[in-house]
Structure to design on (259 residues):
């Protein structure tokens, strides 16, 4: 695909239109925006992205419920809880994500933060000293690391996708966009610095896929990891250093019904 400068100009304008603070309140990214501490942003950003399916209003409400169940301080709750404190999580449910799943997530987070300051390290397993991170390798290694604790619930594996299972990994890719992209607009956080925006893969949800197909940015029939790679490769032609900024344009055009 050659660079279509008309398409680039149009999508750049749409990025500017949607990548604004007004985007935040009605999107799951509003959940980590409630916090200022890095670890709270990471934890609730990750949980909000993993639970991001269904109506956005419902997702936000359920995430706020989860924050309340963790006494409004997710990181402190996770690293300092006693066994009896976990009772506050019993009965939590969002679609197929339930208390069994959140209890394991809490166990993983506690384990991870006992060894590392940031969740970014979980996405650098095996690539700690590489200048350029292979994101496909990183996402596969992350899933292995996430389920490295003994006696993890088998049912919880379905909530963490990976390229190895041919998934687009849209939720985790969205989370990585939130953590890694940095600009002056105030939507994405840009608090991670070892992963680079140029290495990210565009989240490929139904809205993004539909709009991207109309623009010829996706040609593959199936929707899988290769589809997300194809989309991102074409977006890199428009901006090699920050291809996933176009997630704002594609998602915005789709969800607002402009396309």
């Amino acid at each position: 695909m050659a660079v279509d400068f008309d398409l680039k100009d149009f999508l750049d304008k749409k990025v500017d239109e949607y990548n604004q603070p007004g985007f935040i309140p009605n999107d799951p990214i509003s959940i980590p925006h409630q916090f200022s501490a890095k670890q709270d942003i990471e934890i609730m950003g990750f949980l909000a992205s993993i639970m991001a399916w269904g109506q956005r209003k419902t997702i936000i409400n359920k995430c706020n419920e989860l924050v309340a169940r963790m006494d409004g301080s997710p990181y402190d709750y996770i690293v300092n809880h006693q066994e009896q404190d976990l009772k506050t999580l019993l009965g939590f449910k969002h679609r197929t994500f339930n208390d069994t799943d959140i209890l394991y997530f809490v166990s993983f987070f506690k384990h991870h933060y006992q060894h590392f300051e940031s969740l970014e390290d979980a996405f650098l397993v095996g690539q700690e000293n590489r200048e350029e991170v292979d994101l496909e390798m990183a996402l596969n290694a992350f899933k292995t690391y996430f389920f490295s604790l003994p006696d993890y619930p088998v049912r919880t594996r379905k909530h963490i996708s990976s390229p190895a299972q041919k998934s687009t990994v849209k939720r985790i890719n969205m989370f990585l966009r939130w953590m890694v992209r940095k600009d002056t607009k105030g939507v994405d956080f840009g608090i991670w610095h070892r992963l680079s925006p140029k290495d990210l893969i565009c989240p490929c949800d139904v809205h993004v896929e539909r709009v991207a197909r109309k623009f010829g940015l996706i040609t593959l029939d199936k929707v899988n990891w290769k589809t997300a790679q194809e989309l991102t490769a074409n977006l890199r032609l428009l901006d090699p250093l920050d291809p996933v900024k176009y997630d704002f344009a594609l998602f915005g055009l789709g969800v607002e019904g402009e396309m």
Observations:
- The first strand starts at residue 93 and ends at 94.
- The chain has a mean pLDDT of 96.
